[in-house]
Design a protein that fits this description.
Peptidase_T2 (chains A, B); hydrolase (chains A, B); homodimer; globular; Ntn_hydrolases_N (chains A, B); four-stranded antiparallel sheet; Glutamine Phosphoribosylpyrophosphate, subunit 1, domain 1; EC 3.5.1.1 (chains A, B); ASRGL1_meta (chains A, B)
């Protein structure tokens, strides 16, 4: 799992690392109880969404002072996926994304249509106040102008969360959820609900991306990593793709990747990314480049 | 250019072919007047959007009886792109997509946010009645239930339009625009505004896809074609990718593709696709498999 790739300040560092460790263990416990890869990534991302440290329950505000959330979930067995974009005031967008996948003929529902669908399947709305921390509201007041804000603020205002996993049957799945960039325009959709920001295919692996959404979209980062992994190691595939993104479109970000055989990598070109993984040898986690415990 | 890949009935066949021929010439005339690849695909797609034969001005209605339009444009020089999804009552979504690319820091704007942006850049709204033909309204009344409708109706209710081009400087661009699937849920987003439904990169080529959006997303069709074209001919790259989509997710569709050196292909796995192309040798067009005039 990851908790977003950005210049995580020291005062949030411990909470971020603790948060991803708990979420990784939550996802793993679903697998040990016999759950599917899909169940595990959903559980891990719900756990991250519920943690006010990350940009989901602790969501960013758009230029109009509203919360608009994006999420995707994808099943590597069938390539089926579900996504919601610009949905308002939902506690767990990842679960709504799963409902889109399982209960509609579509893959992406956006804005009011996504909220109408949530109502129709009994997913309750929650007030904006419940989604936004006092810290976020103060930061938002400071940076009301996105145009100037994004440059100085890029590294402090977008902490997407995500999970990838492989279950004992060799099925891979991925899920990603975010509140997007602070002071984004109303209706702005980043990479998270788009299949290029996350991808899962039993033939090659599962990826969840984080970072500057517009850059991730330009190079279709998740798809690029998946195409590299057919010929490279998981670490090389992620590094090469992030390097290409830096060179071609000057974008920074991070990605977590797992192969159908259980090899995994957590890679980033930002200052930091909080990540954690559970495999046969136990729990691994890190925050700074090359840090791995 | 293409006017959508589906089982085009004989009574629309001539109008569709005439429409794509005019649009291809329109795009080419922009190039001969010194316009860029981006100008040419925008002009060609605007021409198709303005033609009531196709699903743009002659847009489909969603389950609520509303028109929601998706469009993307992408510049192969920089990988910059702009897109709108679920935007209501706009005559030329492709031009609004271009404004998103050129006038915002974002790549995708959706629903109300996209309409607010349209207003802010002076793009006028037009009434739903002006976007919907009498034929579409009658068909919509017939098929109000999407769940049963889509199966029988899949081949008759989604005619996306698109264009790809390369200019004399070797710059490629693509654009796609659609009203989506008849009786779709409110807020449904297909492949068109997503970078996987169209892609342009000066290093490899430009693609515009059409067909069953959910299937195109699952296999990231445009990106898949682009990755094949590095090692295959343009025709092989498109055919292989459409074949993979048929085998892996049982989806049908079509794609147009141009390489930076000017080689092009118009390929489809549906019954028919109206397409036209202009190259040094003149105007080419077709409708049925293997038909090429």
């Amino acid at each position: 799992v990851h908790g977003g790739a950005w210049a995580i300040p020291d005062e949030c560092a411990k909470a971020c690392v603790d948060g991803v460790k708990v979420a990784a263990q939550e996802g793993f416990s679903v697998l040990t109880r016999g759950g599917s890869a899909l169940d595990a990534v959903e559980a891990a991302v719900r756990n991250l969404e519920d943690n006010t440290v990350f940009n989901a329950r602790g969501a960013t505000l758009n230029a109009d002072g509203e919360v608009e959330l994006d999420a995707i979930i994808m099943d590597g067995r069938t390539l089926a996926s579900g996504a919601v974009s610009s949905v308002k005031n939902i506690a767990n967008p990842v679960s709504l994304a799963r409902a889109v996948m399982e209960k509609t003929d579509h893959m992406i529902l956006t804005s009011r249509g996504a909220n109408l669908f949530a109502e129709s399947v009994g997913v309750a709305s929650i007030p904006t106040e419940a989604l936004v921390s006092a810290y976020e509201r103060t930061e938002w007041e400071k940076h009301k102008n996105y145009a100037t804000g994004v440059k100085e603020d890029f590294n402090s205002a977008h902490d997407t969360v995500g999970a990838v996993t492989v279950d004992c049957a060799g099925n891979v799945a991925c899920a990603t959820s975010t509140g997007g960039i602070r002071n984004k325009m109303a209706g702005r959709v980043g990479d998270s609900p788009v299949i290029c920001g996350g991808y899962a295919d039993n033939c090659s692996g599962a990826v969840s991306c984080t970072g500057h959404g517009e850059s991730i979209l330009k190079v279709t980062l998740a798809r690029l990593i998946i195409s590299h992994v057919e010929q490279k190691t998981v670490a090389e595939a992620s590094q090469l793709s992030l390097q290409y993104m830096a060179e071609r479109v000057h974008g920074a970000g991070g990605a977590i990747l797992v192969s159908p055989s259980g090899r995994w990598a957590a890679t980033f070109s930002t200052d930091r990314m909080a990540w954690a993984a559970v495999d046969r040898e136990g729990l691994w986690y890190g925050l700074d480049p090359n840090e791995r415990h």
